[in-house]
Amino acid sequence: MEDLELPTPFNNIVLLNAWKVENKSPFIDIDSSGLKVCYTDPDDKAIIIRANHPIPLECMIFYFEIKIIDKGRNGMIGVGYCAKQNDKEIGNINVKTKYIHDMFMPDISYYS
């Protein structure tokens, strides 16, 4: 008897499985497996890196983990979810810069 693959609503789901190499922040090296990230800038600049695929909306619960090997000079590391990269400016506000500012300094006005 021939095995039949029945279609399900989840057949086309693509899960994230590595860091996205394209359009990452500068000063990030990603190893050939796409799993290990190294921050290479000696200054204290904020960087962002995203996974290679978004979390599918069909996933009601999603789990991920990371391992931080070195906290760096200041030990300021943020891990979380973000929207698709937006490098566009709205007026004189760079959306990505404002996002980073709000994440690290939420009580200080970006506009003043």
List the SSEs and their pairings.
Elements: E1 28-30, E2 37-39, E3 89-90, E4 93-94, H1 95-104
Antiparallel strand pairs: 1-2, 3-4
Notes on the structure:
With 112 residues, the protein is mostly loops. The chain has one domain. Helix content is 9%, strand content 9%. The strands form two sheets. The protein has a two-stranded antiparallel sheet with strand order 1-2. A two-stranded antiparallel sheet has the order 3-4. The N and C termini lie far apart (72 Å).
Rg over C-alpha atoms, rounded to the nearest angstrom: 18 Å
N to C succession of SSEs: EEEEH
Report the count of strand segments.
Answer: 4
Spatial order of strands in the largest sheet: 1-2
Major pleated sheet? 2 strands, antiparallel
Measure the end-to-end span: 72 Å
Tally of separate helices: 1
Q: Mean pLDDT, as a whole number?
A: 71
Number of domains: 1
Overall shape: it is elongated
Beta-strand proportion: 5-15%
Helix content: under 10%
Contiguous runs where pLDDT drops below 50 for at least 5 residues? 88-95
Kindly name the structural category: little secondary structure
InterPro entries: B30.2/SPRY_sf, ConA-like_dom_sf
